[in-house]
Amino acid sequence: MLSKFPYLRQDFAASIVVFLVAVPLCVGVAVASGVPAELGLVTGIVGGLVTGLMPGSSLQVSGPAAGLTVLVFEAVSEFGV
After folding, report:
1. How crowded is the C-beta side of 29, counted as CA atoms within 13 Å?
2. DSSP of 12-81
3. What is the pLDDT of residue 17?
4. CA dist., res. 42 & res. 29, Å (int)
5. Measured between alpha carbons, how far apart are the two ends of the chain, in Å?
6. Among the four 7, 18, 35, 64, which has the fewest Cβ within 10 Å?
7. CA-CA distance, 70 to 75, in Å (whole number)?
């Protein structure tokens, strides 16, 4: 199996580091948007899994951005949770 995925160990370690960095930001965006912190955690996990399963390049970057707080807040205000 490792012959099909030569960088599996390195990719897994990198994804753990990205997850640990992204969790506080996901929770912060959720709280700043007015939704429960648990939803930020769930969306961070689901978003990471979906992005991780998509094919991409070695330079692909994914994760939350603090600038999304305004957009998420407006969407929650208009459409609800």
Report:
1. 23
2. HHHHHHHHHHHHHHHHHHHHHHTS-HHHHHHHHHHHHHHHHHS---TT------TTHHHHHHHHHHHH--
3. 82
4. 12
5. 41
6. 7
7. 9
- For 34-69, write each residue's pLDDT tens digit: 888 998 888 888 877 777 777 666 666 666 666 677
Nearest CA among 14, 37, 34 for reference residue 26? 37
Contact 64, 48 (CB under 8 A): no
Residue pair 5/45 in contact by the 8 Å Cβ criterion: no
The residue behind tokens 């807040």 is 73
Show the tokens assigned to 7. Answer: 């960088």
- The token pair at 64 is 């939350």
- As a whole number of angstroms, the distance between CA 22 and CA 8 comes to 21
Q: Is the dihedral of CA 13, 5, 59, 32 positive or negative?
A: negative
